[in-house]
Amino acid sequence: MAIRLPHIASSKKVPKGYFAVYVGENQKRFVIPVSFLNQPLFQDFLGMSEEEFGYSHPTGGLTIPCNEDIFLDVTSHLN
After folding, report:
1. Distance CA 1, CA 17 (A)
2. Strands 18-23 and 62-64
């Protein structure tokens, strides 16, 4: 059973103003607002991703190497 937050969705199509990231060991896909890119907490995720994968991501999309629960907790605090 998935937890849906108002600003995080899982979807095949990515609406304008959003982008997809893959999170956790199972590479769960989340569609999040591009405004998160300006948030220092999300920038920490980007730094983790760069350290782990560089600029070559296995899924072809942005992969965030952290637990899904942590990702959901952190992003639930972003506006």
Report:
1. 26
2. parallel
Give the start-to-end residue ranges of the domains of the chain: 18-77
Burial readout 3-25 (b: 16 or more C-beta within 10 A, e: otherwise): eeeeebbeeeeeeeebebbbbbe
- Predicted TM-score (pTM) of the model is 0.76
Question: What are the pLDDT tens digits along the chain (79 aa)?
Answer: 343 444 555 547 889 999 999 999 999 999 999 999 999 999 999 999 899 878 766 666 788 999 999 999 999 998 7
Q: For residues 19 and 65, what is the distance between their CA atoms, to the nearest angstrom?
A: 17
The pair of structure tokens assigned to 72 is 């959901």
Please report where in the chains the tokens 């997809």 appear, as a residue.
20
Going by C-alpha positions, the residue among 59, 51, 53 that lies closest to residue 21 is: 59
